[in-house]
Design a protein that fits this description.
By secondary structure, this protein is mainly α. Helices cover 68% and strands 0% of the residues. The chain is built from four helices and no strands. Helix 1 crosses helix 3 and helix 2 packs across helix 3. The longest helix has 18 residues.
Length: 78
């Protein structure tokens, strides 16, 4: 079975260091030769940085709902 990868698949694998050394070298050559691919790569890096910088917390409503469910569940405290 042949598996085909799109440039975006390759970008993801490259950024997350999921390529072999040989694949990485070949992909780096592609990045040097293809300005559009390089722009996609830089945009992807920016997006990954933004995602990694997110701090996610549940809303007060969700926390209150969980606490209420726990309080009324009838389970004994440990």
């Amino acid at each position: 079975m042949t598996i085909y990868f799109t440039p975006n698949d390759q970008l993801i694998r490259y950024v997350y260091q999921e390529m072999s050394e040989e694949e990485s070298i070949a992909f780096e050559q592609l990045l040097r030769e293809d300005d559009d691919l390089m722009q996609d790569y830089l945009g992807f890096l920016s997006t990954v940085d933004q995602i990694n910088g997110l701090v996610l917390e549940p809303s007060d409503k969700v926390v209150a709902s969980i606490k209420e469910k726990a309080r009324t569940s009838g389970l004994q405290k440990v």
